[in-house]
Amino acid sequence: MKKTVLKNYAKLIAKTGVNVKSGQDVIIRAELDQPEFVAYVAEECYRAGARNVRVEWSHQPVSRLNAIYQSEDTLAEVAPWQEEKLRDQSLSLPAVIYLESADPDGMNGVDAHKVSSASMRRFPKIKPYRDAMENKYQWCIAAVAGKNWAKKVFPKEKNAQAAEEKLWEAILRCSHAEGNPIGNWNEHNKNLSERCRILNGLHLKKLFYRSSNGTDLTVGLMPEGVFAGGGETTLSGRYFNPNIPSEEVFTTPRRGLAEGVVYSTKPLSYQGQLIENFHLRFADGKVTEAAAEKGEEVLKKMLAMDEGASYLGECALVPFDSPINESGLLFYNTLFDENASCHLALGRGFSMCVKDYENYSDEKIKELGVNDSMIHVDFMIGARDLSIEGETEDGARVAIFKNGNWSLAL
After folding, report:
1. Residues 240 and 160 occupy one common structural domain
2. CA pair distance 129, 264, nearest whole angstrom
3. Are residues 210 and 170 in the same domain?
4. Per the domain annotation, does 189 fall within a domain?
5. Distance between CA 380 and CA 318 in Å, rounded?
6. What CATH number is given to the structural domain containing 20?
């Protein structure tokens, strides 16, 4: 891939993604196989005014070895220096960039029970710092073409370099990062914002999902809830884009109000392991039945991570004819596959999806119906024939999606 193209993409991440403030620190989290692109992003952050850019490297093969050989007690540790780093981050509020390039199958063979149990034990130590940072800093997840990831997406391509080039082309195309990336995103955000305006004007209290694959789900919404999409704004007023790409307009449902069954339409990659062809049945908002053709143990461990993991935290509306779905590719990566068509998320909800959330305490946010959990895991449910109807506060039915796409009324 041409350096000029990659540098434009890096600029998009620094300026439109996290929108670095003058004098702000930046943390870049990336795999070891991406040194050149990380340097491009770091330089663009400095050009945008960053005071200091720190890179936190990871290496999936070593992460896998840690998961295999370390005891659960060791995996669950949060060392004093790690806690001090979290404390400092919660106070200094650096912008954080996550560059994803890992192998979707890179954690196959690890003990899912040990890893999930360790995560459950780590979470209470981390949660206070995560909560302290919520809605206060900019962050962005973007993708970089990794060799093993490229092999997974393009298994018929025998030349590894050619596969990687194809993945780069797909990432840039689906991320609106060709030509004039920043101009593309300015227009894209305007379109998503207009969808939000229309949906919020409907004052919906329920969503009804129906598809011939068996999906028949009703989800209740909060009276105080709002739809969001594209860019977000921190409590201090800094606008940023947390996901590149993003095609979604989303809200947080009301905890306890989900009834019926929903079937996945794409594989879910969770902690480096794939879950395929699964369904979830809900009663009183909670998952009461879960089954999968592949990865069922991982799915059930995920649902048992904590009390909130089996409740919904997000309803996202994405047209079936999205750029990602039209690419015809299965990315085996949630960032892309969730933006191919409609999805739901298990676990933590978004306080920002409550109108005037900044005026409420954490306890009030939960009281209004926002779910809390250590996880937030998106899974794809969009289909060509998916229909979504909304019910307004006065009981009227409104077509939101027809045949997998926005209805003509929207």
Report:
1. no
2. 33
3. no
4. no
5. 10
6. 3.40.1830.10
Tokens of 95: 């912008």
Q: What is the pLDDT of residues 220-233, one digit of tens each?
A: 999 999 999 989 99
Q: Residues 321, 206: one domain?
A: yes
Show the beta-strand stretches assigned E in 285-366.
286-294, 312-317, 343-347
> Which has the closest alpha carbon to 14: 33, 34, 28, 35?
28
* Region class of 284: left (phi > 0), else alpha (psi between -120 and 50), else beta: left
Closest to 288 (Cα-Cα) out of 270, 264, 262: 262
Q: Are residues 77 and 221 in the same domain?
A: no
**Could you list the residue range(s) of the whole structural domain that residue 397 is in?**
200-406
Q: How many CA atoms lie within 13 A of 64 on its CB side?
A: 14
Q: Do 98 and 213 belong to one domain?
A: no
Residues 70-98 pLDDT 10s? 999 999 999 999 999 999 999 999 999 99
Sequence-distant (6+) residues with CB within 8 A of 27 are: 53, 54, 55, 56, 89, 94, 95, 96, 97
275 closest CA partner among 262, 250, 260, 293: 293
Count of the separate structural domains present in the chain: 2
Residue 307 included in any domain? yes
**Phi and psi (nearest 5°) for 271?**
50, 40
Alpha-carbon gap, residue 60 to 82, rounded angstroms: 20
**0.85 exceeded by pTM:** yes
On whether both 306 and 233 belong to a single domain, the answer is: yes
CA-CA-CA-CA dihedral for 228, 234, 238, 240, to nearest 10 = -50
340 DSSP assignment: T
Structure-block tokens of residue 60 = 């999936």
DSSP E strands in 230-370: the ranges are 232-233, 239-240, 243-244, 249-251, 253-263, 268-270, 273-283, 286-294, 312-317, 343-347
